[in-house]
Automatic annotation (TrEMBL):
It comes from the Eukaryota. This is Amine oxidase domain-containing protein. One of its GO terms (biological process) is carotenoid metabolic process. It comes from Dipteronia dyeriana. InterPro entries: Amino_oxidase, CrtISO-like, FAD/NAD-bd_sf. The lineage of its organism: Eukaryota, Viridiplantae, Streptophyta, Embryophyta, Tracheophyta. Gene3D superfamilies: FAD/NAD(P)-binding domain. SUPFAM superfamilies: FAD/NAD(P)-binding domain. Residues 33-528 form the Amine oxidase domain. It holds the Pfam family Amino_oxidase. One of its GO terms (molecular function) is oxidoreductase activity.
Amino acid sequence: MALPNYYSHFPQRKSVSNGQDGSADVVVIGSGIGGLCCGGLLARYGEDVVVLESHDLPGGAAHSFQIKGYKFDSGPSLFSGFQSRGPQANPLAQVLDALGESLPCVNYDSWMVYLPEGEFLSRIGPTEFYKDLDKYASKNAVHEWGKLLDAILPLSAAAMALPPLSIRADMGVLSTAAARYAPSLFKSFLQMGPQGALASTKLLRPFSEIIDSLELKDPFIRNWVDLLAFLLAGVKSNGILSAEMVYMFAEWYKPGCSLDYPVHGSGALVDALVRGMEKFGGRLSLGSHVEKIIVENDRATGVKLRNGQFIRAKKAVVSNASMWDTLKLLPKEVVPKSYVDRVNSTLHCESFMHLHLGFDAEGLREDLGIHHIVVNDWDRGVDADQNVVLISVPSVLSPDLAPTGKHVLHAYTPGTEPFELWEGLDRRSSEYKKLKAERSEVMWRAVERALGPGFSRDKCAVKLVGTPLTHKRFLRRNRGTYGPAIQAGKDTFPGHSTPISQLYCCGDSTFPGIGVPAVAASGAIVANSLVSVSQHSELLDAIGI
């Protein structure tokens, strides 16, 4: 799957120092959301930072690309909280605020779901979903959903009492978070009462424990919660932290809530982060493939690029690559066996199948929504391969993403495609092409179901099928993985430091985990940890949190 240039000004950024060795205070490997948040905040703090990106487009899994006038999202498109401000804002919104960048969005409040029970327009908010439950589930489901909201929405005060941007990975957190926000934490616990305060102790436990404690047994409710958890973090409710789910419920099921889609697509989000970083003197170097992290006297001192350049890091190297890909960049002799064993024993989430289409909108219904979720069989589980398909048609909200009278579409199987099926295949072989056709059929059928009889495969001007090998190749993801399959209650996501002094990690291989808000928070935590507590506190003061 080719990735043509989306933003015409990005490819003008050449490798640092035009082939000569260079330096920076901090070198960030990878321009995913986590890397850009880290780089942007470091620049905001006054550090000399360079973000090195292997490809000619920034954004990692969130990049956008263009073909024949169609502008495609490559990854996430279901967003919320971009317009929020203040202490309880979404982590990414807080980073954008710190960088002085706004992100114009189109607001909406629903998506179409196609379930074994039927198909309906599911609306977020505190009341609308009850109507769907009454029609497609049962009276008991209505009762249990109310019981769940009554229990967890009050917990959101505790889950959101500490602003994500206040966290750092050292003892300075006692000043920037614990002491600074102790009054709001205390107030939230008082408001919850004894039972709520006791329940808040489960925020760092699997969300399924809250469900079980409430004795929720309705199959539809449990399936729906599993689906929400899987969309958020790639695991079901028995593997996701309660805090993540409570945060999501607060954004989706409180009065006045809405979903956000960036005008001009997810690439506009990446553009805002890059723009903010460069405004404060940070640098982005595209086409700069890091081949090795240089370690001298047990300290990470820089990186070596594929073209032979050495970029010295005076203060730190930060890897936004996955834990497995970061390990490959390190000299084997300097990495403790315990660290190697931990990384190699961490299970992977599976990979993706992608379908990108550009097609004629003629004959399609005018009220076509942006998002469609297809679940074929609850009994197989939402994490079963070929069972759940997510579809995004962002041009219904941002028409500039497609030529006049056309639509763009991205369908994918969310982290459920086994890499083993594809391992070792030659991408030019007939066997590979045959498997692509077979494994993409579930997405084609889901698209036909969602778009209706007005859609025809023959009307598509652009047809791109991506596989786990595509994911591995273009995103530099080990085994094309979605991320670590770490289940809450059984293991924890690693912190951001490593056994190598001056080497840090951010992104979905670190706390708090997978998902756009989580990786934004991880990048912020690393940036905060590399500056003084006074600098960190001054930033919090400056943005009013």
